[in-house]
Amino acid sequence: MRILVSVLCLEKAGSHVLALSLASAMAERGHQLFLFNQGEQLVDSGMVAQYLRPEIPVIGMDSYPVLNAFCWKLNGLLKRLGVKASFHEYCKTLLLFYVVRRYKIDLVHSHELLVGTSRLVQLSRRIPLVVTDHGGYSMLIKMGDRSFTPYANLGSAIVAVSEYSRHLLEQDASDVAVDSEALKKTGARIIAADFQAEASSLRHSGKLVTKVPLTVPVYTIYNGVQVHQGELPARATIRQRLNIPATTLVFGMIGRGTAQKGWEYALRAYMQLKEQLPAQLMAFICMGAGPVLDELQKQVGASHSDIHFIGSVDDPHSWMPACDIGIMASCFSEGLPLSIIEFYEHGIPVVASTLGGIPEIVQPKDGTPGGLLVSMNSDATPRIEHLVEQMSVYATDSNLRIQHGVAAKHIRETFGMAACAEKYERLFQKVLAEKDTRK
């Protein structure tokens, strides 16, 4: 198969790590892969180099620098003349059609939502299109917005990364508080700050009132995560580098430095826990970059030497072995966070928000938990008192921590990239076979 993978940008995010890793895994299975980056100005080159096989071309407007420069100049001129539409974005859409035609693409795999403003909507009538929903549709449903359904139905299939998301899309999850104004307020703030396609759908949803049911088939495929290759630094070496004593209980958290990831709640809970357990040496390693983390570092960095702001990391496995407990204090919505699985690889249990697919990997129905769940407030933020309580459970019960750490390693084995790629391959073959049948 000749598969075009489409992403809105290549900034550091779990969804983009999956897009790159899965593309590489599909190439290893003998398929020809191409990656179309719609946000050519937003690229984390370290992430791309780490997860994408070098023979897979990344195509964007910057692949044609002379054309790109011309389009930007003409775009600026048209703006000054009062033209509201972006000529550069129009050219980007033409480039997408050109790529599909030139490379004889059989199927497009999108890691962005199909909503009214998506350029992929125009492509969906011409070629099979499979969309992986990393939690974006769940966000819109929680906000009471189902205006995306006519556009989602134009695709060939939706891949939900958790059973929670699949049930929500199929309207089985009737317990979701879509009528909570507090939840919607949190969601509006988070979506506006960090989720382009979802924000665009919300802005335009008032123009489209629809009761169209979702008819596109929805399949659950859990995210796969590559096993770390190469030698890891010793736990003692990492701690020595950060000046963390050997007997210290170390919490760790990784993610984008945005409001959705709940950094403020995690650090507030950590500082309350220190007050509750003054005899226990503790440290907190923050792995990530973004506006919220920048502000928190200004607030607490100088006065709390036990909180370590590492910044953006290309390889989280170089820091995770120093941790005893992973934290995932997300707000409003989550898909299936790769960072939890990465912590599991080191036998590190997690304390995580009860959101999205998180319960499915933290407390699976058929095994010992790999962590503890935190209950949520009505505004879909983690309950601080419960977050502190769950962190305290691990801080004071090393036997339970070890037991859950062993279980975490076992759970991690079910999220291999090879199995994930095989499931996507079967789905893509099914979609193409159904297309041939309809001819």
TrEMBL record:
Pfam family name, one: Glyco_trans_1_4
Superkingdom to which the source organism belongs: Bacteria
Domain Glycosyltransferase subfamily 4-like N-terminal residues, every copy: 14-171
GO-annotated molecular function: glycosyltransferase activity
Name listed for the protein in its UniProt record: Glycosyltransferase subfamily 4-like N-terminal domain-containing protein
Organism: Hymenobacter crusticola
